[in-house]
Amino acid sequence: MRVHYLHYSRATMLKSTFTPIFCMLVPNPKSSKLSTLPITNTFKNCPPPVRQNASLKDPVSITVAPHLAYPTSAYVHLPFCRKRCHYCDFPIVALGSASTQIEDDPRVSNYVQFLCREIDAMKVECDAKKPLETVFFGGGTPSLVPARLVSKVLEALSLKFGVCEDAEISMEMDPGTFDARKMKEMMGLGVNRVSLGVQAFQEKLLRACGRAHGVEEVYESIGIVKSCGVENWSIDLISSLPHQTNDMWEESLRLAIEAQPTHVSVYDLQIEQGTKFGTLYTPGELPLPSETQSADFYKMASRVLCDADYNHYEISSYCKSGYECKHNFTYWKNKPYYGFGLGSASFVGGLRFSRPKKVNDYMGFVQSLENGLVNCSGNDHINVKDTAMDVVMLSLRTAKGIDLKCFQESFGSSIVSSLLDIYKPYFESGHVVCLDEKRRPIRIEDVTTSSFDENIRERKVAYIRLNDPEGFLLSNELISLAFEVIDSYNFGSPHQEAA
Asked: Where do transmembrane segments lie in this chain (predicted)?
């Protein structure tokens, strides 16, 4: 079990980096004051013109093309785990601690059958569909699933949409759930990116989390991934665990770097209701770290990983040059995507649609989909206010930041001016940074508020982004401020928005 991006309500997404992919992004949230830690979860870039919005003082074309384009990415949820980790509230099916070989488990084969049926029943305009460029198998622990069943899913995706020859096909894999033979079988199916759920390099912490693996299995799995020639692979780590110290966190970062993955994901623990941790602990109280300690963990990760030549390209993600996760960029750029399986969400035709989180309910959903009783492909109606919020939230998650010219063309110069006004104290404090077209920092003294519109048009100020790490640590507060600005604007009636 590991962490996924996306599909959360905006409020939930703002409270944590430890965010699963299968929760739905709920429309029309009301902004709220949120604590500045843990760090935010966000994702998105800007779109191109579709209509005039007469309700704005400065009529502009709303850019929504990425929403309306057909997806080229698919997330597939394989929910099976040996056991539920103490922090986990994801939709999973626990098979038992000893489950490493599940070749004949009917729970797995039946689920995969329904998964393939869902893929086949997905409504797609044949003349507009595009082959998939990324596929992400998340969970759960996808590496528990037999290769022959993974093959069935990939075959179903290929028959329905097509899969590019050079597609990025990622799989989450947990230590102790695969050997070299299984790794090579997965590679033979096309899996070319592995996300390894290490989480910690200390036996004590792994036991405290309820993880099914130990440190010995961590090193074994790293050895298998490297010996099998997987070039593109990631290590996942969690900070702010119970009893975790600065020394432990620094050791985990150091040992991760020594393993030489091309990517490292770092998540801050979020205590969720209904989990074992949720009944045992209160955030900020011992044995959990304080907010100050959590911030120190985040700063340490940024410093240590960047010093080791990993690019901090997104709040929780670091990579060697050229090894950004292409699939996750789909989310951060707010592009459409398919989601299949228990609890997963899709974003197609402007609609974010979440599947049921219980197995029986999910199977009933698939049957309804086959009978034409469910529409999860959208109707191309875009809520402009939601889109503007998504742009801000997703863009500020990344090192690139908000493309101001694109945002202004999409939503109007008036709202851009309001955003810049509200961020002025943070420009001055250095938490929010102005960048030129070549992504070079610009001193705030060189661009006055009154000249921002002109500077944006001339691309003197091309982007604003959050400073690393201090700005990222304030991302909850900064994005909430932007939500308040956006929520106060009248973007037109629902009928106008759909026009």
From this structure: none
Distance of CA 491 to the CA centre of its chain: 27
Contact between 342 and 355 under an 8 Å Cβ cutoff? The reply is yes
User: Coil, strand, or helix at residue 162?
Assistant: coil
Residues 259-272 pLDDT 10s = 999 999 999 999 99
Inter-axis angle of helices 384-395 and 475-487, nearest 10: 160
HSE of 437, CA atoms in CB hemisphere, 13 A: 8
List the chain domain ranges: 10-67+382-498, 69-332
Nearest to 27 by CA among 383, 355, 339, 340: 383
pLDDT in the model for residue 56: 29
pLDDT band per the 50, 70, 90 thresholds, residue 381: low
**DSSP 8-state secondary structure symbol assigned to residue 489:** S
Answer yes or no: is pLDDT of 45 > 70: no
Which residues are CB-neighbours of 28 under 8 A, at least 6 positions away? 383, 385, 386
Q: What is the pLDDT of residue 443?
A: 79
Helix intervals (H) in 352-474? 359-370, 384-395, 404-411, 413-429, 452-457, 470-473
Most confident of 16-25, 55-64, 237-246, 380-389: 237-246
Cis amide leading into 469 (omega within 30):
yes
Neighbour-count burial for 245-280, b at 16+ CB within 10 Å, e otherwise: eeebbeebbebbbebebbbbbbbbbbbbeebebbee
As a whole number of angstroms, the longest Cα–Cα distance in the chain is 68
In three-state secondary structure terms, 158 is helix
Report the SS3 class of residue 130.
coil
Q: Distance between CA atoms of 232 and 176, rounded to whole angstroms? A: 20
Checking 324-329 for CB contacts under 8 A at 24+ apart, the result is 324/263, 325/168, 325/170, 325/193, 325/234, 325/263, 326/133, 326/134, 326/168, 327/73, 327/75, 327/134, 327/135, 327/136, 327/168, 327/170, 328/5, 328/43
Note the helical H segments in 64-209. 65-68, 106-121, 147-160, 180-189, 203-209
Alpha carbon distances (Å) from 13 to 4, 34, 64, 378: 11, 11, 22, 23
Exposure on the CB side of residue 171, measured as CA atoms within 13 A: 29
Pick the CATH number of 69-332 from 3.20.20.70, 3.40.50.720, 3.30.70.2210, 2.60.120.260: 3.20.20.70
Q: Crossing angle of helices 180-189/215-227, nearest 10°? A: 50
> Which letter does DSSP use for residue 103 in this model?
T
Contact 250, 274 (CB under 8 A): no
